[in-house]
Design goal:
CATH architecture: 2-Layer Sandwich
Number of helices: 3
Order of helices and strands: EHEEHEHEE
Number of domains: 1
Number of strands: 6
Structural class: alpha+beta
CATH superfamily: RutC-like
Shape: globular
Strand order of the largest sheet: 1-2-3-6-4-5
Radius of gyration: 15 Å
Strand content: 25-35%
Largest sheet: 6 strands, mixed
CATH class: Alpha Beta
CATH topology: 60s Ribosomal Protein L30, Chain: A
Distance between the termini: 11 Å
Length: 144
């Protein structure tokens, strides 16, 4: 059995049609009991942007994505040990962090926050990636 499970594989040609990219990626990788979730933004898995111009709404969609990806990997939000949050304007810190905090209440991960000049698409105002470690005693849904 392979050690790594790749979740929601895709090619960047479809994800970024406005760019000349051709990379094979996935939304999450489960390696043993560790789950690495790719940076999530305010776009749902059908490619629809949620919250144009609204960093808090984009954060809400990003966290919905994170939750779904962790569940698909056989994990959940309580297993998150590290978050990295990127915002394109320091004024977005409060709405983004308030929203992320709602999803991670009682989890206590370590967190890094960065203000960046831009993300991969100009309409994206925030992005969050996470690392989760599934406890050995966890009896949740196993990854496919």
């Amino acid at each position: 059995m392979p050690t790594h499970t790749r979740i929601r594989m895709f090619n960047t040609k479809e994800t970024y049609p406005n760019q000349a990219l051709d990379n094979d990626l996935c939304q999450a990788v489960r390696a043993g009991n560790t789950v690495y979730v790719r940076g999530q933004v305010g776009t749902d898995f059908d490619g629809k942007l949620v919250g144009l111009g609204e960093p808090g709404l984009q954060a809400e969609q990003a966290m919905k994505n994170v939750k779904q990806l962790l569940e698909e990997a056989g994990s959940d939000l309580s297993h998150i040990v590290k978050t990295t949050t990127y915002i394109t304007d320091p004024r977005y810190r409060e709405p983004v962090y308030l929203e992320v905090g709602k999803w991670l209440k009682g989890v206590f991960p370590i967190s890094t926050g960065l203000v960046v000049s831009a993300l991969a698409q100009p309409q994206w105002l925030m992005e969050i990636d996470v690392i989760a470690v599934i406890p050995d005693s966890w009896h949740g849904k196993e990854a496919l």
